[in-house]
Design brief:
This protein is of the alpha+beta class and 289 residues long. It folds into two domains: 33-186, Vaccinia Virus protein VP39 (Rossmann fold), CATH 3.40.50; 193-283, Avidin-like (Lipocalin, Beta Barrel). 25% of the residues lie in helices and 37% in strands. The chain has helices at 3-29, 39-48, 66-73, 86-99, 129-142, and strands at 56-60, 78-83, 105-109, 122-125, 148-152, 163-168, 179-186, 193-199, 202-211, 214-221, 224-228, 231-232, 237-243, 250-258, 261-270, 273-283. The strands form two sheets. It has an eight-stranded antiparallel β-barrel with strand order 8-9-10-11-13-14-15-16. The chain has a seven-stranded mixed β-sheet with strand order 3-2-1-4-5-7-6, covered by helices on one side. The longest helix has 27 residues, at 3-29. The termini are far apart. The relative contact order is 0.10.
């Protein structure tokens, strides 16, 4: 190896070690570096989430308040920013006042890992992976089904996004790239378990296995075995298509998971003739060990 190549290798190693040390320090202290989300990225995050006046947007690690302020000023939403740095919180409040949205925004000095943001319908975040990983269960179990989570650059561990979009950054930060990826998840209802319904025409039984928004269903319809195609939850909405053993009867169901019930409409179609019936299935208690 030439002397120049050796020095280049040592320099690269030193930079890598410095970066890893900084990352470890950030994780240990709970104070990740402050890098702003570019304005066009913030706007696209809110657009992908379908933000509107009925939403409460909570921005985790809100920095100078730009996402919360954009949510209020452009999309008419109520917005809360949660930030660890008191100086940035004051800057956010000043920016909100300048934008004329103090009535629809609030900013708090808080640790996002200890905060209660369960009332949010849209959560935005530009956080390091270790922080997102620690928030994963909070997102999944504390937020209401149908709430949207939108992240800038980093994904949630083990939970596949419902949508990802790569966009060019209008004003790149020297510490970031010229393009970035936005990821969005919709919080699913918890549908796993055994469900049953009795109708005048026969029994229905569904056994649901769930991995985040992805579900596999096995069961019976009107007392007959039902082959059901894999499907996905969309918030509290559940829909599936299956076939009865004759191979000609198609069963379609669309409904919602709410308060221990799956309520909706089942449609049975054979030879071009369809009939629909209301169907409400109750969750069955798990057997005691």
């Amino acid at each position: 190896m030439s002397r120049r190549a050796l020095w280049r290798a040592l320099f690269t190693l030193a930079c890598t070690c410095t970066g890893l040390a900084s990352y470890a320090q950030d994780e240990g202290t709970g104070k990740p570096p402050f890098i702003t989300t570019p304005a066009n990225v913030a706007d696209r995050m809110l657009a992908i989430a379908g933000t509107g006046p009925a939403d409460l947007v909570v921005d985790l690690g809100s920095g100078d308040g730009r996402i919360a302020i954009a949510a209020a000023s452009k999309y008419g939403a109520r917005a809360i920013g949660l930030e660890l740095d008191p100086k940035l919180v004051q800057i956010s409040r000043d920016n909100a006042q300048a934008a004329g949205v103090t009535g629809r925004t609030a900013f708090h000095v808080t640790d996002v890992l200890k905060a209660d943001f369960s009332s949010a319908t849209v959560v935005t975040a530009y956080l390091l992976p270790w922080l997102l990983a620690r928030l994963g269960n909070t997102f999944l179990y504390d937020l209401k089904p149908g709430s949207r989570i939108v992240t800038h650059a980093f994904k949630l561990s083990g939970w596949q996004p419902d949508r990802s979009e790569t966009i060019a950054v209008a004003a790149p930060d020297p510490k970031a790239g010229v393009e970035t990826t936005i990821h969005m998840w919709t919080v699913p209802a918890q549908a796993r378990g055994e469900w049953r319904a009795s109708t005048s025409e026969g029994e229905w039984h569904l056994a649901v296995r769930q991995n985040f928004q992805e579900i596999d269903i096995a069961g019976t319809a009107l007392g007959q075995a039902l082959r059901i195609e894999p499907t996905r939850m969309d918030g509290d909405r559940i829909a599936f298509t299956g076939r009865l053993p004759d191979g000609d009867t198609v069963v379609r169901f669309a409904g919602r998971v709410q308060s221990g019930l799956i309520a909706g409409t089942a449609t049975l179609e054979r030879a071009g003739i369809a009939r629909s019936l209301p169907l409400t299935l109750s969750r069955q208690a798990a057997p005691r060990p």
